[in-house]
Amino acid sequence: MVASPKQAHFLGAKLKSLRKRHGLTLDELSARCVQLEVDAAPSTSYLSMVENGKRSPSADMLALLARVFGKDPRWFLDDSLDVPNVSSRPVAPGALPTTPGAAMPLEPAFLFSKSLLQAALPELLAQTGTSGRHFAQLLIRVWQETRQNDFPDIERAADEAGGRRMPLSVEDLMTIAARHGLKLVWSDGERTQDGKTLLRARYESPGTLVVNRRMNQREERLKYELAFFLGHQVLHGGDGMISPHTASGILGDEMSDQMRPGMASQDVLYAWRDFECSMFAGALLCPRQPFRQFLLREAHSVLACRKLGVTPAVVMRRMTAVSPYRHWHFFDGYPPGYLRAVYRGNGIALPWGNMSLVPDPCPRWAVFRLLNEGAPVRAGSVPTSQISVMDSGTGPRLYCCHSLHTEDAGKSPHVLSVGLDLAPALEAQGLPTADLIESVATACRRGKGLAVLSPAVRAALQTVARVQNIAWIADATEKPATLICPRNGVCPLPTPCGHAVRRDA
Is 502 inside a domain boundary? Predict the structure, then answer.
């Protein structure tokens, strides 16, 4: 029995999965073979080549490996992959989604080769109607979550440009921009080809930033535009390969991208640069150490953005990047369900995405509830807090979110929401975390999706609020906890809640 080239790939995948299932390293597997047959035992490097489909073991070698695991050699040669997949991604706990199916094993290796993926991805995107920009943004988000929002090179570049000063005025930013060769030019309200989308700012090579005069009325947004395109000047040498900014909740030319499925050569470049410049802008306006101290003084108040002259979005996004507590999420949602920005450092399951809309999102999510209220955004709107429990498939998980219904520069309503997974904080206090979370979930099921927190749970969460110095966690404990799920179709309630959600939830 000698494996064919195709079988070798499957054999290697099965051997690798089986080895990891038993907790063996390549060295340990080699040692186990030595114990059975000293002269025939494979080396570690040979085993690695077998697992990667680069070597096909002889019949005798295959029989030896089969003896180690108590398998029939023929089991390795069939085309099935009936071994539980073991993810080997080297990421920190909580850095990536932990829901079932979140990690996809790239086996057999010959089907996931670079050349085949390059050939298959354009067709996949075209058939699903997915734009290259959206796909690139998905890849970047996973990379961002893998790194837990930690990008020291960008932080250092921003610190060098701004000197870690906080707050920065518009005049300060113009001075920094001039020092880096960026000239500011004002425009009188340009619009995109559809005539509906207002351009906030765009970069023109060499070294010219064109800004809509309307930005003078919103100083905090003007500062972000200056900081963003200054990032392009610093990080990319101002070569002009950067998206314009619009005021409709859509970044750059994403509107046209939605009508153009498939992958273009510039999609990844533009998406990556948008990400880098956004990170730079946040780090320039809210440098890590001063901003971390600021959050502690202000008990993580989102409305403290007024003291710094920045937008609530900047404060929320920087919160997830500078906090020593790593288990955060952030959404920026536009009606009817477009996510302009997503971050899931705590692995929370997405209710919807930016590639397609779902027909039955759970309306108990704070971001959905606020989007669907339909009331006009009032001047001076204040954030609302919510304790939520969700069955992740591996048991209930407990979150607290802080959400704000606001408007963008084009007067389009949207909802900003920042939140965190409460379980790691409860565990750090030595509390019976699983029991506390299960009690909230049980109470919510009995209460048709809503439940007043028990004194024990309220006391535990208020302790977490004090330790983390996040006032809005304590505020949320005074309201009923809410049972949420990603989809109405999998609602855990006997009678799905539909869209009949209490306004005080």
Answer: no
Beta-carbon contacts of residue 1 (< 8 Å; ≥ 6 apart): 59, 62, 73, 74, 77
- The answer to whether residue 87 is domain-embedded is no
Query: Considering the entire predicted model, what is its pTM?
Result: 0.81
Residues 221 and 138 in one domain: yes
Task: Note whether 61 and 42 are within 8 A (CB).
Answer: yes
Domain span at residue 71 reads 5-77
Q: Are residues 164 and 230 in the same domain?
A: yes
Q: Is the peptide bond before 42 cis (omega within 30 degrees of 0)?
A: no
At 275-329, the pLDDT tens digits run 999 999 999 999 999 999 999 999 999 999 999 999 999 999 999 999 999 999 9
For the chain, give the longest Cα–Cα distance. 82
Residue at 275 is within a domain: yes
Total domain count, the chain:
3
The residue written with tokens 């009508």 in the block is 259
- pLDDT digit string, tens, across residues 76-118: 877 555 554 443 333 433 334 444 345 666 766 777 888 888 8
Give the number of other Cβ atoms within 10 Å of residue 9's Cβ. 23
Would you call 260 helix, strand, or coil by DSSP?
A: coil
Question: CB-side exposure of 45: number of CA atoms within 13 Å?
Answer: 0
Residues 158 and 67 in one domain: no
